[in-house]
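Backbone shape codes
____________________
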Amino acid sequence: MALSLDRRRFLKYAIVAAVGSVLVAIPGYELYRRWQITAQTVTIEGRYVDLIGPPPYANMELVGKLDTAYELLLDLTGVRPYDGAKIGVLLDSVDSSEYQALAGNPITVVRHCWQELHQQGNCCSELYHTGYHELSHDFMGIPEFDRIIFVTDEFVEGFRALGQQYVYYHVDRPTYEEWRSAYRWPLEEYSKNQFLFEYRFDRDVCASMLMDLVDRYGFDMWKRFFRNIYKLDIGPKEDRTMEERCSLFVRCVSEAAGEDLTDYFKNLRFPIGPTG
């Protein structure tokens, strides 16, 4: 089998495998970087989180921060994702133009993210932020919570923000206050817009609304909320209309707050319908 390659293009590649008549080629520099990263990869084990990546990017300080965040999110929600299994955080050797990190087990941080942050001298602080962000997604995204808290997809980021802010509240109060100020304006602007006749499920408004309820009732209200809904036997949310989903959400938040918040949500143009 003949192989045809443009010579100029070929010079940019290194042949790394030959199986039968199939040649596999990747960029020479990329081959070197992957080898270098893989050769140096270490696993640093924490109590709840394991960090996998090359030093100095992977270090004990970062693992300690992620373990603390895990404990705080457990305190907030009362549950452990993945049936209590440890969560891996992978500083990946591959890149993506579509995202910097992905939640899951393991949490994946793409190479350009952690490498560039380290080169800029702010690797640890920014990786903490990324880790808190994705860990919060892992906790908030468990199926039992998805039945109620994710009324629409925009609530995914709203509740992620709530979890991340709970971590900052305990470990980094200046960052908490900075983000809290940023979270105030979306709800304020939304409330002033009298041309909206029904609720617009915007991710920033969702986060702003959840943090507004923190200001009114504290994080303890959300702790009660999570524990109240965890064992509710109500079936999948897809079996309910949007109005029913919103009404159930309002009912659960009201129970956790110890106050009927129907008018609060009606003022925000929530489409509240009958609760079956």
Summary: Residues 1-37, 119-123 have pLDDT under 50 and may be disordered.
